[in-house]
Design goal:
homotrimer; mainly alpha; about 75% helix; about 0% strand
C-alpha cells in the first residue's frame, strides 16, 4: 500500500508529467482513430469538398476540445480566474501561463490528425479533386468541360466504372497526393521550428518570471487537490460520528435487555 | 491484507473516481459489443427502417439503464429523496446534483454506441436506403419507380444478385454512408462543445453552491456505506454473543454429566 | 516502491543514459516512419526534383529539431548560457561540451532517415531521373529530345502507360538506384570512421579537461532538477497549511454544536 501511496504522491506532485501523459495518450488515440476510420468519399461534385474538408477539420476541433476537457488544469485555470480576490493577489500572468500550457497540450492531438490526414492525402484528394486545373494534364484534351468536371469528381473513387484503370485518374490523384504531402511536411517543419524557438530561446528572456509563474500555477493546482481530499476526509469523519451516535442508542437498548458484552471479553 | 484494506478505503473515499471507472468500462464494453455484433439487414422494404432504427436506438436504451443500475449513486439518490426529514434538512439541490451526475455517467455508453453506429454507417444505410431521392443519381434514368424502390431496398445487401457489382448500389451506399458520418461527427462536436461549456464555464457562476452540493452528495454516500458496515459489524457481534450463550449452556450441561474437559488436557 | 524510487533516481542521476535512450527511440521511430510512409512521385517534370529532394531533406530537418526539443539538455544549455554570472564562473568550455553532446544525439535520427532513403533509392530516382544523361543508354537513339525528357520524367512511375514494361525505364532506374546506394554506403563509412576517430583518439589529447566538463555539465543538469523538485515540495507544504487553516475554523463550529470528537477517542 505504501507503494500505491508513493505512486499517488508522485502523480500529485508532478501534475505536469501526468498532463504530458494524457497529451501523449490522446495523440496515440488519434493515430489509432485515424487508421481505423473508414474514409469514404461520396464522389458527388457538390458533396466532395464539404466531406473532405469536414473530415480534415471537424475531428481536430473535437479532439482539441477533448484535450481541454481531459486536462484538469483548464478547470483550475477558470476557477483561479473567477475566484474572489482574497489575501492572495490575482496575477494575470499566472492565468496566462496556465492558459498557454493547457492550449499547447490540447493542440497536440488535433495537429497529429491534420498532419496524418495531409500525409495520407485521401481527405485532400477528395476535397480538391474538382478544383484541379485540367490544363496541367494532357489526358483531358478530347473531353468537353462538363465531362471533365464529372471525371474529376470521380477521381477519389478508384473502383468507379468511369475512372477504373484510367491513367488520367492516376495522374490527377498522384499530383494531388504529392501536393498534400508537401503541405503536410511544410506544416510539420513550421510547427517544429516554432516549438524549437519557443523552447530554446525562452530562457534568454524572462526566465525568473517564468519560473515564478510555473511555481504558482503548480501551487494553485495543489491547493485544490488538497482541499478536495480534506473535504472527503472531513465528510467521512462526520458520517462516522453520526453512525456511531445512532448505534450508541441501540447499544443501550441491548444493555437494557441484558445481552451486553462483558467489559472483560476478548472479542 | 493491510494492503487490501487501504485500497478499499481509497475506493470508499473517492466514489467519483470509481464511478468514472465504471463509466469508462461500460463505454469500452460498448465498443467491444458493437464491433463483435453481426449486423444483418433484412433488405425487405417494410422491415429495413424498423431494423436499422431499432439497432440504432434499442441497445443505447439498454446501455443507459445498465449505466443507471451499475451506478451505486442512483440508489443512494432515491433513498435520499425518500428518507423522512430528520435533523438534516432535505435539500433538493443535492438531489439535483446527484441526479445530473448519475445521468451524465449513464449517458456515456449509449452515446458511444450511437456515434459508433453513425460513423460506421451500416445501420443508417439499412434504415434510410429506401428514402433516398433517386433524382440525385443518374443511374436510375431507365427504371420504373417500382423497380427503383425494389433496387433501393436491396442497397444494404452487397451480395444480393440484383445489386451485385452495380455502380448505382455503390453510389447510393457511398452517399448514405457519407451522410451518416457527417451526422455522427456533427453530433460528436455538439456533445463535446456542450461538455466543454458545462465544465469550463461552470466555475464562473455558482462555484460555492456547487462545491457544497458535491460535498453533501459525497457525505450521503459515505454515511450509507458506513451505516452498512457498522450494521454488519453489529450483527456479527450480536450473533457471536448468541452462539456463545448457547454453548455456555451446553458447557454447564456437560459439566453436570461429568464429561467436562480436564484442565490439564492437551487439546 | 523502493524499486521504483531507485529506478527513478537512476534516471535522474544519469541523464546521459536517458538521452541515449531518447536518441535510440527517435532513430527507431524514424525507421518505422520511413517504412510506413507512402512515397508517391508526381512524375511531372517540374515537380519531380522538388518532391524527391524535399523528402530527402525536409524530414531529417524536422527530426533534427525534434531531437533538440526532446533533449532536456538543450534547454539546460541555453539557460546556463544566459544565466547571470554569480559566484560560479561561466565556463564556455562546459557550454561547448553540452552543445556537442546535444548535437551528436540530435543528428542520429536525421542520418538514419537520409541513409535509409539513399539505400532504398526511391527519393533519389524521383529527384534525378530528369537529369540523367541520355547518351549513356542506347535505347533513346530513335527519340526526339522532348520525348526523351517526357520519358525520363515518367521513369519513377512503374505503372504509367508510357513506360510500363519498357527496358529503357528499367535501365535508367537501375543506374540511378545503384548510384544512390553507392552514395549511401560511402556516407555510412565516412560517418563511422569519423565517430571511431573521435571516440578512440580523444583520450590521447585533453582527457582531464574533458572529464571536468562532463562533470560540470552533469552538475548543472542535476541542480535544475533538484530546484524543480524542491519548488514542488515547498508548494505542497504551503498549500497543506492553508487548507488546514480553513478547516480549523470549521472544526470550532462543530465543537460549538456538541459533535466534537473525544480527545481520548481512538477513531
Amino acid at each position: 500500500m505504501e507503494r500505491f501511496r508513493m505512486l499517488f504522491q508522485h502523480f500529485q506532485s508532478s501534475s505536469e508529467s501526468v498532463m504530458n501523459g494524457i497529451c501523449l495518450l490522446l495523440a496515440a488515440v488519434t493515430v489509432k482513430l485515424y487508421s481505423s476510420f473508414d474514409f469514404n468519399c461520396p464522389c458527388l461534385a457538390r458533396y466532395n469538398a464539404l466531406y473532405g474538408l469536414g473530415l480534415l477539420l471537424a475531428p481536430p476541433l473535437a479532439l482539441f476540445l477533448c484535450g481541454l476537457l481531459a486536462n484538469r488544469q483548464s478547470a483550475v485555470m477558470v476557477e483561479e480566474w473567477c475566484r474572489p480576490a482574497g489575501h492572495r493577489r490575482k496575477d494575470p500572468g499566472i492565468i496566462r501561463y496556465m492558459c498557454s500550457s493547457v492550449l499547447q497540450r490540447a493542440l497536440a492531438a488535433p495537429l497529429v490528425w491534420i498532419l496524418l490526414a495531409l500525409l495520407d492525402g485521401k481527405c485532400f484528394i477528395c476535397a480538391f479533386s474538382s478544383s484541379v486545373d485540367p490544363e496541367k494534364f494532357l489526358d483531358f484534351a478530347n473531353m468537353t468541360p462538363s465531362q471533365v468536371q464529372q471525371f474529376l469528381a470521380k477521381v477519389p473513387c478508384k473502383e468507379d466504372e468511369l475512372v477504373r484503370d484510367s491513367p488520367a485518374r492516376k495522374a490527377v490523384s498522384r499530383y494531388l497526393r504529392c501536393l498534400s504531402q508537401a503541405i503536410g511536411w511544410s506544416l510539420t517543419l513550421l510547427l517544429i521550428i516554432a516549438a524549437f524557438l519557443a523552447r530554446c530561446l525562452r530562457p534568454c528572456f524572462d526566465q525568473t518570471v517564468f519560473l515564478q509563474r510555473r511555481y504558482w500555477s503548480n501551487y494553485v493546482d495543489l491547493e485544490q487537490k488538497l482541499f478536495d481530499e480534506t473535504c472527503c476526509e472531513h465528510a467521512r469523519d462526520f458520517a462516522h460520528r453520526c453512525v456511531l451516535h445512532f448505534f450508541a442508542s441501540m447499544q443501550s437498548e441491548l444493555r437494557a435487555r441484558g445481552l451486553r458484552r462483558d467489559t472483560t471479553g476478548k472479542n
